[in-house]
Q: What sequence folds into this?
């Protein structure tokens, strides 16, 4: 076997995953997994989730199994990809500790994604240290597996930049070649971010504008019917707008029959096509995607012992790999006193 490239990615378990996650990363991960070209690691980042949820561990605990169910039901296959839990890999915490000495506080404060999150979360002066430093812990996640490729959303680029800096500083400082610089793999332009049901630029749990992979058919239908279209399109006969019309944005992404979508667009712009019609069609399109995912999810849900055993085995394997890297890192620094 040729040396496969190593791929590492993951999510914070702070809730269920939605179709924005599906389009932005999950679908891509399944495709990458199925190429057979990579050794894939997919991490549930419970420690990172705790950095701004220290007082609500139950939320993380409950979300962890939901995320695992979401992974399995979209087709991440434990035979092809290693799913594991961050907190079960002690080496990650030790690497974080060692990397902390290589990163300045001002550098952390400049990380644009962390900056945005800090203002969104209204921390004020009370930013948890763990939160500010989570990019260092993320560098530990990535380097522990010597990952070459990190498939993530666009907002994660600053984490990769910081990881590469840490890798270079580490290797220079300790004259080592242990750590590997990772590359990000980002969604194609225009496909990274799905707008919310309400027309907000981003689908997210906190904005309450998401369709979850686990939503049942009724919930899906209700949500689709509530979607933002064109506020000026009042009567069926009125000409409607496509731009900013969430129904058409979703149809562009999810519908296979592009020709039909183009016909609908023409008709809508011309006037004579009602919102209920396009929404019903979108509902069918989404149901076609989500039905099999939901069915699989329900099956796995009946068998949580199996799901936990997947996570346990994945974590055991991940532990071996990360411990080996930690050993090399300790040796590079000279933290090996006893024979
Ligand atoms: N920061 C990612 C998120 O917000 C989760 C994450 C933690 C991650 N460690 C990672 C992603 C390592 C890729 C690689 O969901």
A:
């Amino acid at each position: 076997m040729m040396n496969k490239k190593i791929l590492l990615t993951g999510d914070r378990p702070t809730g269920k995953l939605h179709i924005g996650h599906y389009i932005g990363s999950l679908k891509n991960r399944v495709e990458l997994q199925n190429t057979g070209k990579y050794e894939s690691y997919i991490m549930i980042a419970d420690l990172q989730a705790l950095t701004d949820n220290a007082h609500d561990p139950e939320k993380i605990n409950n979300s962890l199994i939901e995320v695992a169910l979401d992974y399995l039901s979209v087709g991440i296959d434990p035979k092809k990809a290693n799913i594991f839990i961050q907190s079960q890999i002690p080496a990650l915490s030790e690497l974080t500790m060692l990397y902390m000495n290589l990163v300045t506080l001002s550098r952390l404060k400049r990380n644009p994604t962390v900056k945005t999150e800090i203002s969104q979360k209204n921390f004020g002066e009370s930013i948890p240290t763990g939160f500010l430093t989570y990019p260092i812990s993320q560098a530990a996640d990535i380097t522990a597996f010597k990952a070459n490729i990190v498939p993530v959303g666009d907002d994660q680029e600053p984490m990769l930049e910081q990881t590469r800096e840490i890798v270079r500083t580490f290797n220079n400082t300790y004259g080592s070649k242990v750590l590997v610089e990772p590359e990000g793999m980002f969604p194609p332009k225009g496909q990274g971010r799905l707008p919310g049901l309400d027309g907000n630029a981003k689908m997210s749990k906190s904005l309450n504008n998401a369709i979850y992979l686990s939503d049942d058919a009724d919930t899906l239908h209700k949500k689709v019917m509530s979607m933002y279209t064109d506020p000026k399109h009042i009567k069926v006969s009125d000409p409607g707008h496509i731009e900013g019309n969430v129904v058409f944005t979703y149809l562009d992404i999810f519908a296979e029959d592009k020709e039909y979508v183009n016909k609908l667009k023409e008709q809508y712009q011309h006037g004579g096509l009602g919102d209920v019609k396009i929404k019903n069609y979108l509902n069918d399109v989404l149901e076609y995607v989500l039905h099999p995912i939901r069915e699989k999810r329900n099956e796995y849900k009946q068998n949580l012992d199996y799901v936990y055993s997947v996570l346990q085995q994945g974590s055991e394997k991940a532990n071996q790999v990360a411990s080996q890297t930690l050993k090399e890192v300790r040796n590079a620094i000279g933290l090996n006193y006893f024979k």
About this structure: The beta strands are 5-11, 38-44, 81-85, 149-151, 183-185. The chain has a mean pLDDT of 95.
